[in-house]
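ARCHIVE CARD
SHELF: 3
SLOT: left
DATA:
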Amino acid sequence: MRRRRLRAGLAAVALATAALTAASPPLETVAAASRPAAAPDWSVAVVDSTTARYTPSTIGGWSYPVGLYLYGQYLTYKRTHDPRYLTYIKSYVDRFVKSDGSIDQSFNSLDSMQAGRLLVILHHETGQDRYRKAAKKIRDRLDTYPRTSDGGFWHADSSSRAHQLWSDGVYMVNPFLVEYGREFGDSAYANDEASRQLYVYGSHLQVANGLLRHAYDESRTASWADPQTGLAPEHWCRAVGWYAMAITDVLDALPADHPRRPQLIGILRKLAAGLEKYQDPATGRWFQVMDKGGRSDNWTETSCSSMFTYALSRGAQQGYLDRHYADVARRGYEGVLAKLSVGTDGRTNLTDISIGTNVGDYAYYAARTRATNDFHGLGAFLIMNEQLRGD
């Protein structure tokens, strides 16, 4: 009798155990459910969305906004090794560079030189000499390009830009220059010239609060130029962003013993302190007119916020800046991600990007169109995201 009861009890335990096992998911399923979902690969999402919207033929002409975006696409390619991304860049560049290396560009403005980075990239990736020849046209143009009395490249070789240094301009030529020097054995010239340009521009444009004014006119004749200082009246955020990215990229290229390295680090540290001061505490982003965030018609702008986030993160990582700037960058990164969404078509949308902008007054900057998926913002986003995504 006792044996029958024992057998019945064991059978009941077995049935209960089987029922429990059937009702419970495997341990690996439980572990997977407890892990946080992987963050989306926003670089891939932005590149796939943009290349779906435009072919290499319809994305636009030879220009710095397209060049900036495609440089960001190249950074994504370097990480993912998706061959479509490099093929797309090559198809775009090959619209302008003939098989003999000739390129139908006069390079009479710094803006026209920025996409030259793609020439260096394609030479590095393919070894085709035509890209070296095309890139050399930019390098050779610098030998005759007009300068201020202390050696700064004019923003453009035209009467309307004569004697003017715009903060934007340093990014248009100097990252290209140091990359050209590294790729083609011309680093002695390239590093000296690029670091000189950043120093000359910084010496004119950076003011006591650490930020840079949009532009400087040596002749003091431009309508926006202060008659005493030659400076533009405002701190337009993307102009400062261009400078922040350029100085970071050039520092990455300079040898540790380069004589201008301490000067550039000093400029960057002063700028970083200004960026931390004027970061919007509510959003982590930065304002279109940087030091006037309290005005009701001012707004936080996405491209410059990406640029500052990149520069602060990279600067902290490389030891140019104190490590606490990585936290400032993290707040900026979260602020920019808040401007990115996915539409009903499955494609990304990045909002509140200022369209291209000349030098002006406060009202002019505040009234600029706030675009969605403008290449200034997409390119800056990709550069930022590739720096911070694994942080």
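SLOT: right
DATA:
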Amino acid sequence: MGGREEGLFRRPAFARYFSAVAIGAFGTALTAVAMPVLVVDVLEADPFEVGIVAAAQFVPYALLGLVAGVYVDRWRRQRVLVWASVGRAVSLALIPALWLAGLLHVWVLVGLLLLFGSFAVFGFAATQSLLPQIVERRALLAANARLDQAEAAAQTAGPALGGGLVGLIGAPLAIAVDAVTYVVDAVLIADARISETLERGRAERSLRREIAEGLRWSYRHRTLTPLAWSTHVWFFANAAALTVLAVFALRALGLSPFGYGLLFAAGGAATLLGTAIASSTGSRFGAGAVITCARGLYPVAWATIALIPDTEAAGTGALVALFAAFALQGFAAGVENANEMSFRQIVTPDALLGRVNGTLRSVNRTFAALGAIAGGMAASLADLNIVLFGIAAVFATAFLIALLSPVRTATAE
């Protein structure tokens, strides 16, 4: 596998694709710290508003995801990805611009994130569907593992730098850095030489029929279907968890923006460790076994966080437990993601890949939007520790769906 991974970077198109993903991931990791600080500390949103803001960027997936998948299969994916990156850059750049003008409020931010999410729908569907046009299918696991390593490295350095930037220049201006990374992303992808094959006559086909084909493949496949439902539940739990975590860490535990950034950096470092073994474990044990085992770690991580007292007087031991639990979540994500993505790309015909990716990402983000809203509402009405235990139970449900289905023995072959 090592030789195959090394050979990836001798392909100029993959090298540019890899660089674009890495730079974009760095900016996204930075914003993962800056955005909660902007909402919680700068705009002084209540827990419910925190949930609404977290949900806003996911809502477009529910509205546009199925349609985006069809057009990603009809259009040149490279071109879609370029324009999606430009659109996201503009959406993010408006946040500091409006803040400097004194016009940024919670509901204005929600509107901008809806715009950002609309471009992201097309961008992610194109990103996940373009890779099989760049590398052969037998190299997909290695390629996805390398991409995950780049994202994990960005998630390690990005949050720490993000916390420092937020403390130095403020959350709104820190988000401007992410806007710049999307511009660089667009330039790199536009300059890559990628040969795409398009099926003739696709533009004349029925939109409804093409959406139905993507839905059938996603939800009638023996293994993809339970994997999809496990992932949907996981997205609900994860969005709820991160929404509650922002309130829990920044307000209840009193973490500074830099400390909050270090928390995500710890998770990113653990993700990087997970990605380092993702390819070898997937090849040895099978993608399904790796995904299932990884999903069993999430409820452990969030049950641990739920046991931490929600007070600034919790002490050093509580912070150690918080960082260790978040690192466990990061490790699980690093191990499973490349295996899940490679499995989906291998078992799905290329002509359907845009629609399947668009469909699954649409439903995933819809569940994430619901999870963020549910987490915010629950945090407004109930004790944070009780809410976190409930989130751990939802993560356990995602694990059981995988464990008790054909996912457990699936292989990406």
